From TrEMBL, chains A, B:
Keywords from the UniProt entry: DNA-binding, Transcription, Transcription regulation
GO MF annotation: an example: transcription cis-regulatory region binding
DNA-binding region(s) in UniProt: 36-55
HTH tetR-type domain ranges (all copies): 13-73
Record-given protein name: TetR family transcriptional regulator
Species classification: Bacteria, Bacillati, Actinomycetota, Actinomycetes, Streptosporangiales
Length: 204, 204
DNA sequence: TTTTATTTACGGGACGGTATCGTTAATTGA
DNA sequence: TCAATTAACGATACCGTCCCGTAAATAAAA
């Protein structure tokens, strides 16, 4: 990326972000092995050497793009999780979460990340560290809260429960005939209900 | 593929299988975008034209290669599922299933299939129809059985429960630091237990 | 029945064209 | 004045097609 102050012409930070954005787009469109430095440079409106000067290769560039340029949806603060009941947090977040998860962008990114997990583990590692782990810790806090309340079975491993929820949803959106946002909302409720994190309101 | 009886020299069926095998290998190694007809032909020991004579393009070829992959894990017959208790079926199958699912081959194929789900839906559709659906029907039968017995909550949607089990496992094997067979066995038991399909034996 | 002609499959390789690679040279700008 | 940048470079890979010489089957003729 942009180096420290040197003597000659400084690098343009906007160039960095343009390259990273182009890299993420092309990763999603074509995957790691389908994307090329040449395309990324072209889409960023930049010469190839401008890319090579900053990153040693495709993998490093895409990994950093995954770290830095994925739009983050809003996550409740840890304090909220401690204070509020899981049921309340979940009911407040579910519609937006369903919308996000059912979107074509999420589907595409999820597919490409999964597809790269074995051949390019560093990519998945970056995604895991920067995007998944923070959310998992939040979910684990919610689950522990719910286990104290008795809604979730106390002997269950929170990591396994999280995998079941996340795995079901990600797997569902990659299946043929993926759900739209409304169907996804019902689906997530069914999953959470099975775990014990959600109880349907009487009227719905 | 090999056409019906014609006038001239018939096509060699072994050539078909050699091409399909090479196509599946290269799909797993490099993904749809990374594989090429040229490589597939070379690995199969065959001229390019011999491939083009049978398939119109990479996608069709790989789709058929995925269809015809013969998974060697044994599936219990539907009669077994009706007759035996789910607990018994599961306990009998779990160790082999854990071994399969934790293997590098399964991880790699799973990653590539997921990775192609959005960009090449026909590929996922072929996999779904030929490999996933039959197993889902078996699992659904087991779940209905278990719901009658009261082990699994009767109001739960079997499709959702299957997604939770399959999703958790596939997601788990694609995470950084994937489990070995022994750890996978414990993991699957935890998942099944949460669903209600498994109860740990007293001594273990 | 035997021979010959015809037809298709096959491995191998060449083709014109395009895309990508990583490097080198020339230009631009703070 | 020095680093950033663009453009050009040769090399390699792949595409889809075509041709060569050979092999293997069927169909027609002797």
């Amino acid at each position: 990326m942009t180096a420290a102050r040197g003597r000659g012409r400084p690098r343009d930070p906007q160039t960095d972000t343009a390259i990273l954005r182009a890299a993420l787009e092309l990763f999603i469109e074509r995957g790691v092995e389908g994307a090329s430095i040449e395309q990324i440079a072209k889409r960023a409106g930049v010469g190839k050497l401008t890319v090579y000067r900053r990153w040693s290769g495709k993998e490093e560039l895409i990994a950093q793009a995954v770290e830095q340029t994925i739009p983050r949806d809003l996550v409740p603060s840890p304090e909220d999780v401690e204070a509020m009941a899981p049921q309340e947090i979940i009911e407040r977040m579910l519609p937006a979460a369903a919308e996000t998860v059912a979107s074509p962008e999420f589907r595409a990114l999820t597919a490409r990340m999964m597809g790269s997990a074995v051949s390019h583990p560093a990519l998945m590692a970056a995604y895991w560290k920067h995007h998944i782990l923070p959310r998992r810790e939040l979910a684990a806090a919610m689950l522990r809260h719910a286990q104290k309340d008795g809604a979730v079975s106390a002997d269950a491993d929170p990591d396994v429960l999280i995998d079941m929820m996340v795995g079901a949803v990600t797997w569902r959106v990659l299946q043929p005939d993926p759900p739209d946002a409304a169907e996804m909302l019902r689906y997530i409720k069914a999953v959470y209900q099975q775990i014990g994190l959600y109880r349907p309101s009487p009227e719905s």
